[in-house]
Each structure stands twice: as structure tokens, then as C-alpha cells.
Amino acid sequence: MTCRSNTQRRLQPVLISLTCTIMSSFARAEEISPVEDSPIRSYFLIDQLEHSTSRYTNGSASEDALRLNTSAWIGGDYQRIWLYTEGTKPESAKIEDVDVQVLYGALVTPFWDLQIGLRYFKPLPSAPSRQYAVLGVQGLAPYRFGVQAAAFISEYGDLSARAEIEYELLLTQRWILQPRLATNIALQEVEEQGVGHGLNDLELGLRLRYEIRREFSPYVGVSWHKRYGETAQFAQDRGELVGEWNLLAGIRAWF
Prior knowledge:
255 residues; alpha+beta; 2 helices
């Protein structure tokens, strides 16, 4: 009996000390603020700010133009607000091909966002503008192909779609070659906008940039653009040719 009492007396300070340590740990844990695992961030990319010199496929004429293509987002890892803008200013005409999209994007699988929102589009200076509802996806496909695809339905019920695929090939740590493909299709003819039924056009581009800094890169390149079907016929009726090569020089920057 005496032996058991002595053992209890020896263990009692140890148990008291252990209890105090545990209670102190819980108290400190309650004082620590929770860690925010999805902070609000933002990103703005000037993907293309370029000067192009067009050489028509028959070699008969050339025209300079300035082109702008940007994308931006604000949000967390799972939900974001996206803004896409695009436009072209030919040397001898007003701004055309104005395209502005404001979208809500949600991460649905790793590397892929589902997007829904609104679009404003004015393809030609003389054409009426249209507003669209947008449903699209954007993300990174296997082998690191960047993909952006969207379907549009206008206020008049016209259905169309656009897809872009690009890839970044690292030649060195600073020299990057970027091939790009873009195409537009439409289910209805919209003559006042110069849009025909079916495949509208196809654009292939190749840009070589040098990253002076990761955030700033001048580039040079070449692109080929051709219209098809009714869209090509509408272009010819306006006095435009349906195919052209473009020599490009521009900058790419992000913030």
C-alpha cells in the first residue's frame, strides 16, 4: 500500500505538468488566425500588341494594321471574373473586329475553367454590333496545349463558336516559339456582319519572342489568315480578298 502511494505522489507532478502543457497548446491554437488558402489575386496579360504588314495571297497589295489582344482575371483559385478584349485598327479604316467578353469562370477540373458571361462584338466599322451570351472553357490540355473555346448565342438567336489552340516551345530559357491556331464557325448566315454559314475563317500564326524579363517580351512572327464559303464571298463583295499573309512585330507583357 505504501509503495502504491509513493508511486502516485511521484506521478502527480508529471500529470499536472502534462495537463498544463496540453491546455496551453490549445489556448495558443485558438489565438492563431486561420490561414486563408484562396486569396484574391489579379492578372493582366497583353498577349498581342503588334504591328502587321499584310501581303495578300496574290501579292497585289499590302496594308499595315495595329492589333491588340488582352486577357485579365481577378479572383481566387476556384472562381474568377475574366475579361477578354480584342481589336484591329487597319491603316486605312476605323477600328474593326472589336470583341469584348466579361465572363465568370469556375474551376471544374485541374487546369480547366468553365466560363459563362456576356460578349460585345462588332466585326466591321460599317456593321451593327451584337451582344451575345457566352458558354466556354479554357485551360491546359495534355502536353501543355493552351485551349480556349466558346459558343455564342446572339440577341437574335444566331449561334456561332470560336476555338483557339496555342503552344509554347522553349528553345532556350529566354527564346520561346509560339504556334497558334484560331477558327470561327457559324450556324446561321448574318450578312450585315459579313458572317456566312459554316466555317468562316482559319488563322495560323507563328511568333518568336525573347523574354528580356518574364513580364516583358518583344517578338516577331508571321501569320496566315483565310476566309471560307459565304464569309469569303461577303468579303469579296466588300472589295476585300479572302486570304493574306502577315508579317508581325510586337510586344507581350503581363502584370
